[in-house]
Structures are given as structure tokens and as C-alpha cells.
User: Fold this.
Amino acid sequence: MFHTSLQQLTVGDWIVNGVVLAVTAALLFLFFRPWVRTSKFWRATVTPLASIIGSGFLVVAPLLGFTVGNWALMAITAIVVLAYFVGGAVRYNIAHLESIIESDESDEGDETVIRWLGRAAKLSLALAYVIAVAFYLKLLAAFVMRLFHPDFAHLENWIATAIAAFIGGFGLWRGLSMLESMEIFTVEGKLSIIGGLLVGLLIYNGDLVMKNQWHLPQLKTDWSVKTLRQLLGAFLIVQGFETSRYLHGVYPPKHRINTMQFAQGIAAGVYILFVGLATILLGVFDNVSETGIIDLSARVAYVLPFTLIVGAGMSQFSAAVADTVSSGGLLEEATKGRIKRHKVYAGAAGYAIALLWLVDIFSVISYASRAFALYYAIQCTMAAVHAGSSGDKGRRVEKSLWFALLALLMLATAILGIPAETTGEHGGQ
Assistant:
């Protein structure tokens, strides 16, 4: 699991490890300060931020490294920019469409279409969340098992299955509100660990530059339609900003719009900085592994694999609970209470367990990406319909066409996205 042992660490290595731990501890201290914990702006930011960088951050380096090699930085930049534009459609809907979507009756033709699209969006998002639960639990089990001997790797699905059964059974019995409260703690812990990793990568890159040894690995990239389809299948890594849309019972529209923009900005910066700093280490991957970030981080600091495993375990469990709860709430809303949310929990767990055993984790990523893309396509269509019939006449057509273009891009993602191949020629050093 580790690139070096404790006996091999030099004085410089110990200093780097100390800095990484100090940064992680400092960020934890900051996040737990009263003025941060009681900030409504930060709490509204944490919800979308938790989803955007919760799991995608763990797989983005091996996924993009094996798909596009040294072009990973350009790829992640394009992905986060597209996600920000799609987030603009969701923000438009928060500002203009919530009252229409939640209303029961309307005599306006466009409003009727928007209301039906809103219901379809809830159903598609509920399905996407259920698929994502399988991804979170598969990732959780994979990271936990990295602490043990490779011979125990075959137990990953059994561990994930047991956790899924616990979440579904507990939710059916008692509901999941007791488990939801841990989300903000796991998010802030994860952000602190990411901060330590980024500082470690900065030191690693800086040291190589000072020694005149910095150079990119020789990675083979075969650009083709298939490569583009694999990138579309990876859109899940930046999903999560839509959660601001469903906080309408807690925060007003302007507050949610601002905090969603802030969350997407933070996530974009984290992704771009991480992939840019990690590019020099992309050659360590022999194949696409869901736990490849552990191998990468072990080259930077001895402590990072341990902190990442702890952070991944907590954050993936929390994310699985949150998405199970969200799927139940969305289905209850979409069916106007005919399906109760606590009954959805058991069904969601059962569906997730089936996915755990039927497909590999990168297929799950692709399926979830396509399901979320369908949801975003519906959101963009709603924005296009409303923008085309309302607002400033001078920009009405322009806005409507822009949202329609985004809807087509998301629909293409839903139809054409495919999983990254887990084996093949990488061309790494």
C-alpha cells in the first residue's frame, strides 16, 4: 500500500509529513470554530460542496489519468466549466420556477409543461441518487480494504452489501435523520484532508522544480470518439450542485443561488489545482483503480494514505445516507405522498446491492453520470421553456437558445457516456 516504510523516511520526509498533518489540523480547527459552525452561508454552501467533491475527488486522478493522460488538467477544466454553466440553469430555475413547479394548478400552457418537467426531474434525480449510493458504498469498501492484505479484496462487495442493508433496514425501521446529522462533520473533515494533500503536492512539485527534475510522465493518449464518450461518462465527478435547489424549505432563493455559485467555485478550484499538481504522478497507475489516489498520495507523504482512507470511509457513508434520504424525499414529492420515503429506503438499498454485484465501479460511475445528465437535461429544458416566454425580450431568444444547447449537451451525455476501461495500455513510466 505504501511507497516507503517508516524506516526509509528521511528528515525531509518527516518535515513534509508534519506540514501535511499541521495543515489538516489547522483546517479542522478553523471549520469547528463557532463563527464557522453557526454561519448560515457556510452551512448552505456545505450541502452542494459535499456532493461535488465528496467522491469524485477520490477517483478523478486515476480516471482522467488513464483516459486522457497528460491532458487531464484540460479535461477537468472543461468538465468543471460545463458543470458551472449547467449550474446556471439550475440557478435560473431557483430564481424563476420554484413557485410554478410546486403549484398544483395552472392555466398557462408553458407553466403546465414546466410543472410536468419538474416532476420528471424529481423522478430522474431519485434514480440517479440510488445509483450513486452503490458508487459510494463500493468506494467505501474499496478504501477500507486497502488497509488489509490484497487477498481480502474479494470481501469488498460483501462489506458494501452489509452497509447498504444496514442503511435500508435502519431507514425502514427508524428513518435516517439520526444518521444525516454527521454530514457536516464528514464534509469538513474531508476538506481538511484535501487541504493537507494539496499542500503536500505543492511541496512535492516544488521540490522537483528546485532539483530541476520536474517533468511530465510519458503517457499515451488515443484521442477518439470513444475517449470523448468516456469523459462524458465521468461527469458524475462534479455532480452535486443541484442539491441547493432542494433546500427551499431552509434558505431563500438568493441565498441558495449565491452559495451554489460559491460551492461550485471552491470545487472547481480544488479539482483544477489537484489534477494540475497530480499530473506529474499519473504515471504511477498501471490501470484504473478506484483507490488509485492512495498510491499517488503515498508518493507525497507517508501519512496521506491513512488520512485519505479515514476521510473516504466517513464521507462515503455519509454520502450514501444523504442520497438515500434524498431519493426517498424526491419520490415522495413526485408521487404526492403515495409512496412514503421510509419505504423507498429499503428499495434503494436493494437496488444498490444489485448494482454492487452486477457491475464494476467505473460502470456505476458511468450509469450515475448518465442518470444525473438526464436530470440536468430536464432542468436546462425547463429553463429554456421559461426563458423563451418570459423576461427581457431583447435577451429572451438568446437565453432560451443557450439553455437549449446545454440541454442537448446533457442529453448527449446521458445517451453517449460510457465507462472508462479498467485495463489497457497506459504508457506510464
Summary: Residues 6-416 form a domain with the Amino acid/polyamine transporter I fold (CATH 1.20.1740.10).
